[in-house]
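Next comes the chain:
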Amino acid sequence: MADLQGTLAVVTGGGRGIGREIALHQARAGATVAVLARSAPQIEETVALIEGEGGKARAYPVDLVDRSAVEAGFAAIVSELGPIDCMINNHGSFRAFGPIWECDPDEWWGDVEINLRGCFHTCRVVAPAMLERGRGRIVNLVGGGTGTSFPHGSGYAASKAGIMRFTECLNDTTVPGGVLAFAVDPGLVRTAMTEMQLDTEAGRTFLPGIQQLFEDKINVPPSKAAALIADIARGRFDRLAGRMLRGPEDRDALEREIDAIIADDGRALRITGLD
């Protein structure tokens, strides 16, 4: 498989955690990386790490909920770095914990807006240009609650399930034009977001299972999802476009299972038993 030399990847939420690791993996594979987040110092640090390894990157502070800011930011990326080959939506927010009547409504809606609306804004901007070129890949990160109930994380779960369905709809719309969309679940990774769940009273009260999982040493390295996404960018899993791939899984085993996944119509949101 070819490396990513000469391609441009955009990584949102690239200032820390999983996003930083994704950006580093893209650069190590040869891609130039545009690193996006609201915090300029954090994304500048990611860029410095990439450049320190001999890679190419540039920081773009953008609030993904602000449509005008997204449009201006992506116009700058294309003007300064060229056409986008791989769009990776890693940004995420999970601040509203608990039964819905105990959640702050603005925090609950903020999780949905950042996660889902932010993803919509970036895809809306990049997809037409990719279609015009006849190629491109979009990777949207999902997570807890995508395919199962998450009672005390309803805003986060609703947004991630929404991103999964959005990814399916997007892929079905763009795949005839050569643009493929994928969903990736990185697994439980110890990040600043999960640390907040561990360190706040609401998190300890309503999400005690997170602490238990970490105590049980369920802690997926962010490099797992980053390596998977690098393989997606290379085209290794093109046949699974529109479906969910998981960071913790063995990529060689996943490749061997592609035919079975497609035959079973797996890794997608489906409602069964309605015949």
Notes: Residues 8-189+220-263 form a domain with the Rossmann fold fold (CATH 3.40.50.720).
